[in-house]
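During the reporting period the student researcher (J.K.) took over the structure-prediction task from the postdoctoral fellow and processed the backlog of single-chain submissions. One of the processed entries is reproduced below for the supervisory committee.
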Amino acid sequence: MNTVFFDVDTQLDFLYPAGALYVPGAEAIVPVLGRLTTYAVTHGIPIVSTMDAHTGADPEFAAWPHHCVAGCLGQRKPEVTLAGSRGPQHFIPKQHVDCFTSAALLPLLAELQADHYVVYGVVTEVCVRHALRGLLATGKRVTVLADAIKELSAAAAQETLAELTAAGGAIGASTDY
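J.K. obtained the following structure tokens:
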């Protein structure tokens, strides 16, 4: 089985209290993200990393505070989430909550030819939800790792997970990898 890890928006502005759009408690998943990156590298699993990369005047800022402005510190990823020269990692910059609006994503997924997507990151009910929907639409197996995601609203996150399972996706844990 050809598995691809799908890392959604694990960026400094979301993961840490000093971040511009901090997800409360998200720093707790950073060690899990690091273990997943190491596992992927060790087992030759490609990682697709979506990354908000906003310009200073993006329309998204009408709904959300300025965050992940391209080239700024908050747009970067924690070092533990970077495969570097150790393994294949593909970065997909995006300006919208839905990573499937990036013209680069579908050709990359076609190239990777995954049978199974393992999804983790932030924010569960926003960008992770959009990623799950798009990946499910590929017809491939999709698993979200419950201990490697973080939400703003517990109720909205539960709705996202219910939507995933109703559509045929699965909920797993990082300890499965």
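The committee noted the following: The chain has a mean pLDDT of 96.
J.K. will present the remaining backlog at the next meeting.
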